[in-house]
Design brief:
Strand order of the largest sheet: 15-14-27-26-25-16-17
Number of domains: 5
Number of helices: 23
Oligomer: single chain
CATH topology of the largest domain: Rossmann fold
CATH class of the largest domain: Alpha Beta
Shape: globular
Helix content: 25-40%
Length: about 775
């Protein structure tokens, strides 16, 4: 236990851990000390001098944000000390000399500490009579952020965040003295997937968001606390609406998850909510076109086809998307088993394989890794995932552990990401051998190791199981981090061809299935075949729930074959995607901003969703739509409140991890292999309407190691083509020392580059040849 010290603040005694800052001790007593530069999650700086306090025995006032508590210290804040009051008034007067009095039009008006403190502690008038300093305004420092330099108080919150938290030092304090100002290098915009945080923590209106400027004020918005669903991190957010319109998303402090940060996709990737192309009423295909109809007509059309399929023994199938709320996923799984009578279900995943089934079955029943484990780890092993792009907040927590605790980070795979640590490069197929050998190397981290993996690791033979068993050998924790928010919840709900809710194998003995049957009633026997089976067996009726297999499956033809072969397709979606355009009936679904519910994070915890705006038109939640379909078909189906009770009843008890039987490890081939990487900002459906954010997407590119580039005579930036057996893609070459030899990296889902044309589920790492684009 750390030593403690006792001090007095404004006549009140308090005991705090040694090293606590005076400003933090005052907060514990409910005493507010004015400040601008101080932020509890940034290193102290003392730049603004606003938090001056009187300390007994000191010659002059001290900044409470940089002064640590000592035994017997006597502190007086502005509430009890004229010296502290005078110091704070003087600082405010200096700050206001050049600060514009534009509060009524400033976006920070109504939530500005400078505005509040000038009223509460500042002078009643100004002695300054000369003209205020003026600058050209606003200056765009990125697509999303505008800088009004005359408002800046030089608190350095933004630059400290960029340097300490995100590691993106593209925004700095330039010049010195009276000329000092926040700026960026010429023609180098502030590029960071966390850039929106500098807008939120700016204490004045110097940094503002382009898409929020002049749209609303804090006193005329309604704030709803919810959870971000743009990835599986589970960040706490505040959603602000004005007159039923979503105007802003802010990070909400949650020390157990996201501290006080969110990524730009979660903050600004909300344009899809009010997009003009949202499906807002049921659509039924009549000829080559869709016709808007009533819910009754749409439901009757579906029920008629279901009765026909039921009468002739036709097969039915269900395919789930990657962003469903837990209640929607559970309802879909129940609908498939109890209404359609099928285990032919699946969730879209980038690398579905038979090997991942034991791991996915074990997840709901196992105490897997958490943010707290990442914080406390002595070693973090990362394989099959780019935390920076796939789970940004997990990346920040891992980076924080390395910076503050010296945690050793090891990456295994064909690519080195932005995590600062060791990299064990290997071509696809070599991950299992490297992971298996790490146990002996990391014996010193036993009991405090975390192994973090992503969905794509399942494509490398033996790797996912090797990672699971490595965590057990190191007496640590295993974390599986899907890229999308709804994937783990869908798996735990049983939206997997081999699984029932809680990780129960669908083909298990009757005793193992009894728990689900006690809640749901008799269930179909045996396991389904998933998307492959749907494409091969041509179900008579296929339900798509937020699923777009035509564009989201790493096989350009598999999703199309599944839909083309189905006799009747029902799509529950927010948009007419490439898949739903092929459907017979499209039903309008609500987004996560339009429903209450829960979402299962990568940790396995259920975070709350709170609807902040009503669904557009006739749209409704997937769970409610499925209940209406079941009733039209003549079957009973529970409402969402009952579904929530069933979810709780089928939730698995979690215990310690148990080693899995190892799968045959793969071996990297000698040929050059294609490796698909995912960018946070891509061309996905949920990026619709977020044009400013979309402009920051990295775009198409073909990555090579320096050795591979030299061997082929390729220079950085040259236009080249990557050709595989099934097709080819072209783009600019990126020569990167963080790419393993023998690998070619190509991004998924970027405009102008469809990497799926090169892939199949049977060959996730195809052999590729590199040639000049002109050679096509």
């Amino acid at each position: 236990m750390s030593a403690e010290v006792t001090l007095t603040i404004d006549g009140r005694e308090i005991t705090v851990p040694e090293g606590t800052l005076v400003i933090r001790a005052a907060e514990r007593l409910g005493i507010y000390v004015p400040r601008f530069c101080d932020h509890p999650m940034l290193d102290p700086l003392g730049a603004c001098r606003q938090c001056l306090v009187e300390v007994e025995g000191q010659r002059k006032p001290l900044t409470s944000c940089t002064t640590t508590c000592t035994e017997g210290m006597v502190v007086k804040t502005q509430a009890t000390s004229e010296i502290a009051q005078d110091g704070q008034r003087g600082v405010l007067e200096l700050l206001l000399i050049n600060h514009p009095l534009d509060c009524p039009m400033c976006d920070k008006g109504g939530e500005c500490p400078l505005q509040d403190q000038a009223l509460a502690y500042g002078p009643g008038g100004s002695r300054y009579v000369d003209a205020k300093r003026r600058f050209t305004k606003p200056i765009p420092i990125s697509e999303q952020i505008k800088l009004d330099r005359e408002r800046c108080v030089l608190c350095a919150r933004c630059t400290r965040f960029a340097d300490q938290i995100s590691g993106d030092p593209f925004i700095e304090l330039f010049e010195r003295g009276a000329l000092e100002q926040v700026s960026i290098s010429e023609d180098e915009p502030y590029e960071s997937i966390f850039s929106g945080n500098v807008v939120q923590i700016c204490p004045v209106g110097a940094l503002t968001a382009t898409d929020y400027r002049f749209r609303a004020r804090p006193f005329d918005v309604v704030t709803t606390s919810s959870t971000c669903t743009r990835c599986a991190s589970g960040c706490a957010i505040d959603v602000q609406t004005r007159r039923g319109e979503l105007v802003r998303v802010l990070a909400r402090e949650d020390r157990a998850v996201n501290d006080a940060w969110i990524c730009d996709k979660g903050r600004w990737g909300t344009g899809f909510v009010a997009h003009a192309d949202r499906v807002t009423e049921p659509l039924v295909r009549k000829g080559d076109d869709f016709v808007a109809v009533s819910w009754t007509e749409a439901l009757d059309a579906i029920a008629e086809r279901l009765r026909a399929a039921n009468g002739n023994g036709g097969r039915t199938a269900v395919l789930a998307g990657r962003h469903l709320a837990d209640e929607d996923a559970f309802a879909l799984s129940r609908f498939a088993r109890t209404v359609l009578g099928t285990n032919e279900v699946d969730t879209l995943r980038p690398a579905p394989s038979e090997e991942e089934t034991p791991v996915l079955a074990a997840l709901p029943r196992t105490e897997t890794a958490t943010y707290a484990d990442v914080d406390a780890a002595r070693a973090i092993i990362v394989a099959g995932i780019d935390l920076h792009q796939d789970a940004p907040i997990v990346y920040l927590r891992a980076r924080k552990a390395a910076r503050e605790r010296g945690t050793h980070i090891i990456e295994v795979g064909p690519r080195r990401t932005r995590l600062a640590g060791a990299w064990l490069p290997c071509a696809p197929g070599g991950e299992a051998a490297v992971l298996s050998a790490l146990a002996a190397e990391l014996s010193g981290a036993a009991g405090a190791a975390v192994v973090l993996t992503g969905e794509r690791l399942a494509a490398s033979p033996g790797a996912l199981t090797a990672a699971w068993n490595l965590a057990i050998e190191l007496q640590g924790r295993f974390g599986w981090i899907p890229r999308a928010s709804g994937v783990r919840g869908a798996i735990e709900a049983g939206l997997h061809p081999a699984l029932l809710p809680g990780g129960v194998r669908a083909d298990a003995v009757a005793a193992a299935v009894a728990a689900a049957e006690a809640v749901w009633g008799p269930l179909p026997s045996g396991a389904g075949g998933g998307l492959r089976s749907m494409a091969a067996a041509s179900p008579e009726v296929l339900f798509l729930a937020g699923a777009d297999p035509v564009t989201a499956v790493p096989d350009a033809s598999l999703g199309s074959r599944a839909i083309d072969g189905a006799g009747f397709v029902v799509a529950l979606d927010m948009f007419l995607t490439a898949s739903s355009r092929m459907a017979d009936v499209v039903l309008p679904a609500a987004s996560s901003f339009e429903r209450d519910g829960t979402v299962t994070t990568w940790e396995g915890t259920r975070a709350s969703l709170r609807g902040s705006i009503p669904p557009p038109g006739l749209a409704d939640t997937t769970a409610t739509i499925l209940r209406h379909v079941a009733e039209a078909f003549g079957r009973g189906f529970p409402d969402e409140r009952t579904l929530a009770r069933e979810m709780a009843a089928l939730r698995a008890e979690r215990g310690p991890a148990v080693a899995l039987d190892p799968w045959a490890a793969g071996a990297p081939g000698k040929d050059t292999r294609l490796v698909v990487v995912d960018d946070l900002i891509d061309q996905g459906t949920l990026m619709a309407g977020s044009d400013l954010l979309a402009h920051t997407a990295p775009g198409p590119r073909i990555g090579l190691s320096p050795a591979s580039a030299r061997a082929r005579g390729v220079s950085d930036g040259a236009r080249i083509r990557a050709r595989a057996r099934l097709g080819a893609v072209a783009g600019p070459a990126v020569v990167d020392e963080g790419i393993a030899d023998g690998c070619v990296l190509v991004p998924s889902n970027q405009a102008g580059m469809d990497v799926r044309a090169l892939l199949s589920l049977d060959d996730p790492f195809p052999v590729v040849e590199i040639e000049p684009e002109s050679g096509a």
